[in-house]
Amino acid sequence: MLSLDVEAVQAFVMVADLQSFTRAADALGTTQAAISVKLKRLEEKVGRRLIERTPRHVRLSAEGAVFIQPARDFLAAHDRAVAGLFSCARRFALGIAAHVAGPEVTTLLARLNEHDPALTIEVQVDNSRNLLDAFDRGELDAAIVRREDDRRDGEVLGPEHFGWFAAPNFRCRPDEPIRLAALSPACGVRDIGTHALDDAGIAWTEVFLGGGSSVVMAAVSAGLAMAVFSERLAPVGTVEVSRKFNLPPLPSSEIVLHSTLTDQRSRDALRTIACAFREHRAAAA
Q1: CA distance linking residue 106 with residue 277, whole number of Å
Q2: φ, ψ at 152 (rounded to 5°)
Q3: 192 vs 51: CA distance, rounded Å
Q4: For this UniProt entry, which residues form the secretion signal (predicted)?
């Protein structure tokens, strides 16, 4: 009967998620050589090449693409079994920036619950600045935010690109200021747009401010205003209108995971969060 080594399967899944032997080694706290050895032993045991590796690319082989979900299920079952032996209730407070929280959050929370069912997960959604303040006060165990100007250290989960979005029927006459909708005056994404307009000498006015993301999306979808959105989170049915209205380009940012937790259980949870986030973004690309 074929038996699988947990660490070897974990190495395979990490390489597949991060598309890099080096990043997989960093995430697992080991060396690239050790990752390569574990993957080679796994491939020899299953009799299949699972990862295609070239000087420029690391990707799943056809056999690896078939094996990846069973491998995840195998690791999840192992984690549940181990958690059952050492289960004790624990609170994990996670902050997610409003302009970061997208469809991947469902995957992230489900994967975190699979990894450690004993965790009580508390999620706080707010703008990046408020979450970083809460994180600094020790109120959050981890925070997923847009990179702020302070350039503080954190684990980069991926790039974030922004655009000007509006309903297809949105109209703005040349002699009128651009009508904007935003979450709040403290919203960093709002600042990205307003600073770009100011630098370009384009007049603007806010016609919707606050009320939550649903209100902002409703205002934009109804054709009452335009707004700056992450390209992956723009409301369904809206279009990018920078060319149509001759609007300035917007700088990109990064999505970053911050945490100071060092115990193994917490580090495992953080690794689960990072992998789930990257996996969902890669699948949606």
Answers
A1: 10
A2: -60, 155
A3: 40
A4: none
Residues found in the chain? 285
pLDDT (average), residues 212-224: 83
Q: Which regions of the chain carry the CATH code 3.40.190.10?
A: 90-151+255-284, 162-251
pLDDT in tens, 130-157: 888 999 899 999 998 888 655 567 888 8
Domain 6-85 has CATH 3.90.550.10: no
**Which percentage of the chain shows pLDDT scores above 70?**
91
Cβ neighbors of 259 (< 8 A, separation 6 or more) are 141, 142, 143, 266, 270
Domain 162-251 part of CATH 1.10.3720.10: no
Q: Which CATH number does the domain 90-151+255-284 belong to among 3.30.360.10, 3.40.190.10, 2.60.40.60, 3.40.50.970? A: 3.40.190.10
Place of tokens 């993301």: 213
pTM beyond 0.90: no
222-263 pLDDT, tens digit each: 888 999 988 888 888 999 999 999 999 999 888 888 888 877
For residue 181, the SS3 value is strand
Tell me the one-letter amino acid at 99. H
pLDDT for the residue numbered 285: 56
DSSP conformational letter for 53: E
Asked if 59 and 12 count as a contact pair (C-beta separation under 8 A), the reply is: no
Calculate mean pLDDT across residues 201-220. 81
Residue with tokens 């054709």: 223
Strand 90-97, strand 58-60: pairing: unpaired
